[in-house]
Write a structure and sequence with these properties.
The structure is a single chain. The chain has one domain: Alpha-Beta Horseshoe (pyruvate-formate lyase- activating enzyme). α5 links the parallel β4 and β5. By secondary structure, the protein is an alpha/beta fold. Helices cover 39% and strands 17% of the residues. It has an eight-stranded parallel beta sheet with strand order 1-9-7-6-5-4-3-2, sandwiched between helices. A two-stranded antiparallel ribbon has the order 8-10. α8 packs parallel to α10. The longest helix has 15 residues. The two termini are 27 Å apart. It binds iron/sulfur cluster. The site of iron/sulfur cluster has 12 residues, from loops.
Length: 307
């Protein structure tokens, strides 16, 4: 495939959001305070080896209603003269479905009914979705555009065991099947450069996701974050991290294996300077996107085109 055709295959979230939401959008991160079923006591140390003490999100404290109204106020203050961006309510921190559906329902539906919320994102583990929760998600999706973010990280069971994910690939596939049965959109989280993996593994993960027919994908490179189990491994000298160029070429190869319709939601993470221990290059998101653009031979891959 030549470079121009490859560039045409990258279907970024930004233009989709502008088209479907009718204008600029911004996410409001919501922490439902439910912790993670894969960590002792929900928030204790352990879990996936790359996961820092605060989980994978940026919890803000307070009730979901308070977090939402504070987030909406921030959106308004960011554009005092222009139109306020559309709000995407993002249930992000830890595992957003880690409670019975009757506990989730009032919290989720108040957000789905809020007139200022244009869309909803729910991030969770594929093994934390009992049938009543699926029904609740389907109910929310009838009210607002919604997508479900599911952690997969790798389509190789040996890797999932190595990184202590606590579920296997079949579990993810079953969750995707359940989502599709209800017409729900799924976005898979994938990490490139996991211990024991090379580009052959990451290409195979891309092919697996393509076969699953999922809606979108979020990528980032393996990072060592303060307090994560991986930090200990790195201190002991037992970890080899990819260079930026390795990541960029692997990401480009990954994208080339996805069908054109699959939306790319993220290609580089925002680890935050106080949390990132390694690799140093991951702190410069623009440079990471530039390296991927170069690998794809695209000039205009911008952060604004991603989520
Ligand atoms: S990455 Fe997600 S599933 Fe894994 S320990 Fe952290 S919060 Fe739990």
């Amino acid at each position: 495939m030549d470079a121009a055709r490859l560039a045409q295959r990258v279907n970024l979230l930004g233009p989709w959001l502008r088209r479907v939401m009718g204008g600029p959008t911004l996410k409001i991160s919501l922490d439902p305070g439910l912790g993670c079923p894969h960590r002792p006591g929900g928030v204790g140390p352990g879990g996936c080896i790359y996961c820092p003490p605060g989980g994978s999100g940026h919890g803000r404290g307070g009730s979901v209603a308070q977090q939402l109204s504070q987030g909406l106020a921030r959106l308004q203050s960011r554009s005092p003269r222009g139109p306020t961006p559309r709000a995407l309510a993002y249930f992000q921190a830890y595992t957003a479905t880690n409670a019975p559906a009757q506990v989730l329902e009032p919290m989720f539906l108040q957000v789905a009914r809020h007139p200022a919320v244009a869309g909803i994102i729910v991030a969770t583990r594929p093994d934390c979705l009992p049938p009543p929760t699926w029904d609740l998600l389907a109910e929310m999706a009838r009210r607002r555009p919604l997508w479900l973010e599911l952690g997969l990280q790798s389509a190789h069971d040996a890797t999932l065991e190595r990184i202590n994910r606590g579920h296997d690939v079949a579990n993810f596939d079953r969750a995707v099947g359940q989502a599709h049965k209800r017409g729900l959109r799924v976005v898979a989280h994938v990490i490139l450069g996991l211990p024991g993996e090379d580009k052959g593994h990451t290409n195979a993960t891309a092919r697996h996701l393509a076969r699953q027919g999922i809606w979108g994908v979020k990528l980032h490179n393996l990072m060592v974050l303060a307090g994560a189990p991986l930090a200990k491994k790195q201190r002991a000298g037992g970890l080899s991290l990819w260079s930026r160029e390795d990541y960029a070429t692997a990401a480009a190869a990954f994208l080339a294996r996805l069908p054109r319709r699959m939306l790319v939601h993220r290609l580089a993470a925002d680890p935050g300077p106080d949390r990132l221990l390694a690799p140093d290059w991951a702190a410069d998101k623009d440079a990471v996107l530039g390296a991927i653009a170069q690998a794809l031979e695209i000039d205009n891959l911008r952060q604004g085109d991603l989520a």
